[in-house]
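ARCHIVE RECORD
Type: protein–small molecule complex
Small molecule: xanthosine-5'-monophosphate
Source of inputs: curated submission
Record status: active
Notes field left blank by submitter.
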Amino acid sequence: MRGNRLILALDVYEQDRALRIATATAPYLWAIKVNWPLILGSGLGVITKLKKVTDLPVIADLKLADIPNTNRLVSRKVFEAGADYVIAHGFAGRDSVEAVMEEGEVILVVDMSHGGAKEFITPATDGLVEMANELKPFGVVAPATRPERIAYVRERLLNGIKILSPGVGAQGGRIRDAIKAGADFLIVGRSIYSSQNPEESARALWEEVRRWS
Ligand code: XMP
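STRUCTURE (tokenized, with ligand):
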């Protein structure tokens, strides 16, 4: 595992800005996560370019939740562009997740960081963790905003399946709490890319991750 446990959520539109921030912060990152804002703003080719300038793994956070055939068609294009992991929802069912897994490595959402997560996804966590234990994806997503949910997932998840936790910083989650609860990787977006000095913000977060690791 190169670098440390910090993942940059690069939710900007413009390619030049994305590449500038990625290049400056790369020494402090394990991976870069791209989501719809960047893919829609800059095109799928931005994944290829990010990998070229940083040599880091790229996670495509598409939160796929379609029928198997559509999940397959979408994820194939994203893996072809160079993505190393695709984030998928599990609630569409096992066959939909397996379709993505046939194309490449998957990260499964088992809970979410926002308030509305409590309406539908938190009550479904047990079944989603069970699915993860059977399908053995690279990892699952659980929220740093509710570290008790990370601990809940960690207790039930097979060893070896990683927990990736968004929600640090802008959403109020804290690195220390997430790591102590069992997070393997911390996903941070706005606290890095919206700061005056993304490189310095990434470095400070990297240090904090190391302190609590
Ligand atoms: P911020 O700016 O809040 O960005 O640091 C967080 C990034 O992570 C995504 N996100 C989530 N993804 N489950 C997920 O799979 C979640 O609970 C979750 N919460 C935030 C968000 O889209 C952004 O890219």
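CURATOR ANNOTATION: The first strand starts at residue 6 and ends at 9.
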